[in-house]
């Protein structure tokens, strides 16, 4: 456990798999599950990089948000729409919905 703690201080990004490799290099034959259990008991875990789920392309144009600061005070002032597809046995169907933002009522639905 002392070796694991020292190695974690030197290389905090290493997880249980790399810790097993390090211990094998030091002459200890250890199962990865045991290393996981010991690391959990010692309260150490490898640091993983943050997920980058949305990467912005610098070449894409950013359009302004036209409704910022607009007070919606009456029906039919602002509508929104959305489109999705529904998988079917032989292909798919489109579903379109149009909604009034003031009343939150659906103005139209189309297939």
Write the layout of secondary structure elements.
Blueprint (H helix, E strand, L loop, with lengths): L1 H9 L5 H10 L6 H11 L36 E10 L2 E10 L5 E5 L1
Antiparallel strand pairs: 1-2, 2-3
- The percent range for strand residues is 15-25%
Let me know the largest β-sheet: 3 strands, antiparallel
Low-pLDDT runs of 5+ residues are: none
Q: What is the H-and-E element order?
A: HHHEEE
Question: Care to describe what's here?
Answer:
The protein has helices at 2-10, 16-25, 32-42, and strands spanning 79-88, 91-100, 106-110. The protein has 111 residues and is of the alpha+beta class. Among the domains are: 2-42; 79-110, no CATH class.
Features of the shown structure:
alpha+beta; 27% helix; 3 strands; single chain; 3-stranded antiparallel sheet; 111 residues
Give a short overview.
27% of the residues lie in helices and 23% in strands.
């Amino acid at each position: 456990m002392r070796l694991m703690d020292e190695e974690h201080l030197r290389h905090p990004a290493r997880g249980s798999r790399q810790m097993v490799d390090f211990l094998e290099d030091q002459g200890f034959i250890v199962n990865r599950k045991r290393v996981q259990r010991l690391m959990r008991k010692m309260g150490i875990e490898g640091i993983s990089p943050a997920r980058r789920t949305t990467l912005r392309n610098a070449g894409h144009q950013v359009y302004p948000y036209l409704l910022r600061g607009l007070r919606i005070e009456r029906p039919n002032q602002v509508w929104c729409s959305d489109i999705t597809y529904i998988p079917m046995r032989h292909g798919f169907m489109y579903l379109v919905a149009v909604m009034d933002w003031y009343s939150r009522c659906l103005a139209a639905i189309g297939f």
